[in-house]
Specification:
Number of helices: 2
Number of strands: 7
Helix content: 10-25%
Strand content: 35-45%
Strand order of the largest sheet: 4-3-2-1-6-7-5
Order of helices and strands: EEEEHEEEH
């Protein structure tokens, strides 16, 4: 059992020389996210903040303990297209560090389903928070600004 040691998760997806997605969620409520997985959207900002919506706990509930038996780097054969790199790093107490990195190609077989599903879940879990952070500050109405 190692899941209880983990207190932060970093997920990155790189396509070619672009970071298509970066998500960091921590047990203390901090959330950092940039991108949506599409390497063409490089103009998206890095949103950082504290959330009390349980993003970390929600993501941890979707992770099967057994994946921690298979950490390391996987390089998939027969590359075709731009190189893609999916990294998942789980860190925590007692120097806990469980890292996965899958190197594959845009037009070939993707990462193992277990790791791809963690990425998909992280995007879904943080999407509402991320979209809220991307709204222009001009839209933020203060309680005293009744004219907005």
């Amino acid at each position: 059992m190692v899941k209880y040691l983990i207190d932060k998760i970093l997920i990155t997806l790189e396509v070619g020389d672009q970071t298509a997605l970066l998500i960091l969620v921590a047990k203390d409520g901090s959330v950092h996210r940039k991108g949506n997985g599409n390497p063409a959207n490089t103009d998206l900002v890095l949103a950082q903040g504290i959330s009390h919506d349980g993003h970390f706990e929600a993501l941890m509930m979707t992770i099967d303990e057994s994946i921690f038996n298979h950490t390391g780097v996987i390089r998939l054969p027969n590359p075709a297209g731009r190189e893609c790199r999916l990294s998942l790093i789980f860190q925590g107490r007692n120097e806990a560090d469980f890292s996965f990195r899958v190197i594959y190609s845009e037009e070939s077989e993707g990462p193992p389903q277990e790791l791809a599903q963690i990425l998909i879940n992280a995007v879904k879990i943080t999407e509402g928070w991320y979209q809220e952070q991307l709204k222009p500050e001009a839209e933020d109405k203060k309680w005293w600004q009744v004219w907005k």
